[in-house]
Specification:
The chain is of the alpha/beta class. It folds into two domains: about 240 residues, Aspartate Aminotransferase, domain 2 (3-Layer(aba) Sandwich), CATH 3.40.640.10; about 80 residues, no CATH class. The protein contains 13 helices and seven strands. The chain has a seven-stranded mixed sheet, sandwiched between helices. Helix 6 links the parallel strand 4 and strand 5. Helix 10 packs antiparallel against helix 11 and helix 10 packs across helix 12. The longest helix is centred in the first third of the chain and has 20 residues. The two termini are about 40 Å apart.
Length: about 425
């Protein structure tokens, strides 16, 4: 076993963890939220935004890259992920101008000291290997990327009918730790509309010290910036932070509309993890969504919600199968299941018990048994595992809010718990 945290381990980035980092890992593992969208975990997403800005200010980054200045960012695992996200955003922006059929003409640029993660990310993003320009560096320039050499390479590609797309500048390369001249490189890239990304994975942590702030002079002109907190800032692996000047480009390239990732809120103006909305805009969007939900109750959802009224009280425990009382008696504060039933009853109103209604509800029950079988199985498994891990405590009153019936009926077998 190679002990990376040993004081005698001198390879790569030694002793990068800390007691605080380990406690943070334990906390996040215990909470185990999945904040892939704002709607999936608002608190975790808001906390991510705060941390991204806090670290950006600690590194003396320009405000244009932070949420407070119109930019934004996100926490990722590795630098390769950060560079890949930036390349995809730059690629889609460029192809929107020149046409998607010209993806084979896109060219990316770096120095021969740039980390191999850049070439890997470019290849994953669909850039031909032959279109990755590694510009030679020299000892006389302290192995930094020369703006003159970069200009010559870009002009040669333009003359050949190719399209310059992306430049990766580095603050502290892995091999020899040189720093590329960001201001001069941005000036060259601007003439060709090239996206400039600064990879500060290795030495970016040094920017916390004011005396090293000059290393990123001109960073106001870059499009994205990334660094690894798990190298010098005593954070456990993996922790990479990505900042972008225009988060909308990142969202346009990487967002999706699939229902199962709880992305529906974005249609009403709720932000993606990387998307910014002001506090007032967010509140207004939430209010509009709430008003819309109260105003619009789909007719075809009445049988399903009627079933919820019958099923959830039984699952909540302590409430008879005949339904909740007319008032809120017996409903404890924080009882999610009971509160859901009350909300459903307020929206749907009393449901008749005529023969027609009974027949319709039975038909819905039959459909739900087949459609929600996986959800039912997972909910039963959660209850079973909780009972095993906490034998003294009562099982949770409600594990999974769903329209499925958690009964020992149907093809998925008997009730586990």
């Amino acid at each position: 076993m190679t002990h990376w945290q040993s004081a005698r381990h001198f390879a790569h980035f030694p002793a990068s963890s800390s007691t605080i980092g380990a406690l943070g890992e334990a906390l996040t593992a215990g909470i185990s939220v999945v904040p892939f969208t704002w709607a999936a975990s608002p608190a975790a997403t808001e906390l991510e935004m705060v941390v991204v800005d806090w670290l950006g200010k600690a590194l003396h980054l320009p405000e244009s890259l932070m949420f407070c200045g119109g930019g934004g960012g996100t926490l990722l695992g590795t630098t390769c992920e950060a560079i890949l996200c930036a390349i995809v955003a730059a690629r889609d922006r460029k192809l929107a101008d020149i046409g998607s059929e010209r993806i084979g003409d896109l060219v990316v640029y770096c120095s021969d000291q740039t980390h191999f993660a850049f070439r890997k990310a470019a290849h994953i993003a669909g850039i031909h290997r032959d279109n990755c320009r590694e510009i030679a560096t020299y000892r006389d320039d302290m192995f930094a990327l020369s703006p003159t050499e970069l200009q010559a390479a870009m002009q040669a590609d333009v003359d050949a009918g190719l399209v310059p797309l992306f430049l990766c500048a580095t603050v502290g390369t892995t091999q020899t730790t040189p720093v590329d001249p960001i201001r001069e490189l941005c000036a060259v890239a601007a003439t060709h509309g090239v996206w400039v990304h600064v990879d500060a994975a290795y030495a970016g942590s040094a920017l916390v010290c004011p005396e090293f702030r000059h290393l990123i002079d001109g960073a106001e002109a870059v499009d994205s910036f990334s660094m690894n907190a798990h190298k010098w800032l005593l954070a456990n692996n993996d922790c990479c932070v990505l900042w972008v000047k225009k988060p909308s480009l990142l969202i346009a390239a990487l967002s999706t509309e699939q229902e199962y990732i709880l992305n529906a809120g974005e249609a009403h103006g709720l932000p993606h993890p990387q998307q910014l909305l002001g506090e007032s805009e967010r509140r207004e969007a939430a209010d509009q969504r709430g008003r819309r939900r109260r105003r619009e109750v789909p007719q075809d959802s009445v049988p399903v919600r009627a079933q919820l009224c019958d099923e959830l009280p039984r699952l909540a425990g302590g409430v008879g199968a005949g339904g909740l009382p007319g008032a809120r008696e017996g409903v404890e504060e924080g009882d999610v299941a009971a509160e859901e039933v009350l909300r459903v009853r307020e929206e749907v109103g009393a449901v008749g018990q005529g023969a027609e209604e009974v027949e319709r509800r039975e038909r819905v029950r039959g459909e739900l048994r087949g459609r929600d079988a996986p959800l039912a199985a997972r909910a039963r498994l959660h209850r079973h595992l909780h009972a095993r891990m906490h034998p003294v405590q009562a099982p949770p009153s409600f594990c999974l809010v769903s329209t499925c019936q958690l009964r020992g009926e149907g093809w998925w077998g008997p009730h586990v718990s």
